[in-house]
Amino acid sequence: MTTQAAGVWVRTIQAAQENERDQLAQALKALQVGKTATAREQLEALSQSPRVHQDSDLAAEVARAQAICLRAQGELDEATRILEEAIKAAPANPDLLALLADLEFSRGRWEAAAERTAQARAQDDNHLLARWVDAQLLRETGKLEDAVNACRWFVDLQNEQAERLKTDPEALLLVGQAAELYFRAEARGEDLAQSLNDVINVIYEQAITTDRHCWQAAWLEGRLFLAGYNERLAMPELQRALTINPLAPEVLTTLGQADLNGYKLAAGREKAQRALEINPSYLPAYVLLADLNISDERFADALKAAESALAINPRDQDALARYAAAQRLLLNDAAARAAELAVLADNPRPARFYAALGERLADRRKYPEAERAFLKAVEADPNQADAIIGLGMLHMQVGREAEAKTLFDQAFAADPFNVRADNMMKVLRHLSGYTTIETNHFRVLVDPAQDELLGRYMADYLEEVLVELSQTLGFTPPGQTQVEILKNHQWFSGRTIGLPFIPTVGACTGKVVAMASPRATQRPYNWARVLKHEMVHVLNLQQTEFNIPHWYTEALAVNSEGYPRPQEWNKMLLVRVPARKLLNLDTINLGFIRPSEPEERQLAYCQAQLYAQYMTQRFGPQAHIRLLDAYRRGLTTDQAVPDAFGIPKEDFEAGYLDFLDAEVRTLKARVESEEPITFSKLQDRLKADPENADLNAKMAYEHFSRRDLREARPFADKALKLNPKQPLAAYVKARLLETIGDEEAARAVLKPALDPENPNERVVDLLGQLEMKAGNLDEAERLFETARRLDPSNSKWIAGLARVHLRQKRVDAFLEDLAKLALNDADDLTLRKELAKRHLQRGEFDQAARWGKECLYIDVYDPECHELLADAHLGQNQADRAVAEYKVALQLQPKKLALLGVKLARAEWAAGQRDEARQRLDAILQADPTLPEAQDLDREWRGKAER
Questions:
Q1: From residue 159, how far is each of 124, 148, 218 by CA, in Å?
Q2: Which of 409, 340, 419 is nearest to 380 (CA)?
């Protein structure tokens, strides 16, 4: 071969090699943006190329890329095989050796991983991936100080060779992760915050600057923020990573973790499942599924997810923690202990295992076991913020705020990025200014400037309601229960979860009850109802040693409130019970935790209450005590029902459905229960069937509801011609007649459409109003009473009867109606005031006191409420109690201060406090000698003195 020919041949070979390297670069780019299948095909083709086989370095690079691609698809065995084959061909290649070490480490094959890192470092002691695997091996075997020193090597490297590293994104990712671990172990406070900011801004951001497809850097930034519950900063980074690679299971799983933190369990589950569809061997996705299942109270499913994770890596601390937690929640303590021993066999200081175990057990309120786990985690690694924060949150849940404060101060120094720790420190500083009101069984914490009066009344109510609940449930909590009334909803949310928002006004951990102050809500609410609900949770959570399922504690809590079912629940039952679109004992928990449709959460509350009522009706007044005891003994629902009631669960469920059918039979006064239909579909149906009375009636109603009265009339007339008793058509025609003032004709149209056995809601309502306007009060009463009898709790019929009874001057019946309306709306202060006033006028002081007290359950800062209650107490000859209420009313600065002073003076005199009474009245007369009420009382007293 001539020299010229040889040169051409060399250049041809070089060009070919450059072409192969371009193809490799394209495959790696495809891999980075989530086109894994495309990358795999390209790499497979390259691996078969003769020119690749002729270049050992290129062949090694292709094999390494293939292994990375296969690993991303979850094919770990095939990835291992390819690396092992490539190492046979290039035994001194540190990149292949280090990648295989990393793969072996991720599968729990630590001995093999250590052997491979030793081989890699023998070729290149500065090989970053090999050193990173070594650092992780040290950490996983409990050699934490050595692991920190190993990570320091990366920090030193970054400091010394920053310019060289900035062009190598893969190196920057390893340096960033090692630096994060190092700084968390060695730095504190502002130094740690600055160091972590440098990891983000100097290292990870440089990786993205160098390679805009480096989604891993954005993911690691988001993960770092999310580890501190800082979702506001985490989400943009995670979305940036997902924009680059929409199929990265790492990112999807971290987003799922954010959903778990926010209790968006359905969204989190979807992301975990998507991640596993992409990579069936991605262990963190199984860990996330286990966490979601534990929060869902699906402990058997959590165990399966943990077992799937352990099949990938039997030594993984996170997987073993979920396995142990699931076994403990399934009451298999021996298996939980075996998992703990397995971890300890490898690692005498498994801090991550204990911290994760504590978190999951605390989530299910297993406080003693969770505390032990957190303490073990802190003992294993005092620098780990997760365990310290978890222990602090646990102490907050059980009311040990002083201990929690020390922990959160420590945790914030260990992790200044942690939003929960920061928020809890703020909450504790806020709570330090609260006043404590103590009784025999309660400690009530309130903001003294805003809620001290509320706290005093709450404390009295709590003692009163505890007696009732203890008798009903057969249990009294030991010691004092702590009740905290937070100044506003933001502080309540921070106190409850350490994050900005929780969609409720009350929460219970089983040891502590927290509430948002009614004074800070847009509309006052019945705080007594909320307190009673939460106190039921306190009792039955402790009574069952926190084994009670979610549905049953809610069933007991809602049922204890003593109010009728909301009308919205009745409407659900009317539709769902006949169609059997219901929850059962197997699915009702998910209705609370993970509803499949918007209405299902309310359905869960409704059905839970009905389960509670069904049990009492069928099995007697001790039914709940028996079932609670079964849960206390650790039985599952499948076991507890037969144990408590002596029948199979299937029999229990069948009886429950019969009970629901009976309930629905009482709810007959209603509008048509047909499914809604769009206007265009209605037009099509009517065109196809023009002589259908029901369709003509629907069309009449559609036009009437759109205020198109002219178009409505012919459809209503035709429907009534076809069927004079068609209720919807009669209603529309009557409304049309009413608009022109012909109310007599309107009544005549409605009467044939009234079916006494199954009255239509619209027909009854309109006909009743028309009869009342016509002065036919007895007939109006009959109509409303017919509807009320078939739907006893419907406020519409009760209000109709109240109007009739008021005009009939039947005061007893009218007051009974008002009482029923008040029960239907626990937060209606106006109704309760009216009831108290009317009973006072009638001299019915016991009833007046009842309603006066209920007024205070809504607004203790309304002086009129205290005055009404004081008037009632005075009428009951309970002068001491009257004095106390009048004094509170005076403190609240009522409009008629002097008149209230006269009432107080009268009460003080009756209570034997005659000097105070005389001084008070004299002061009032001095200020206004002409006040008639004061003059009358003065004459009364002087007359008594003269006699």
A1: 20, 17, 22
A2: 340
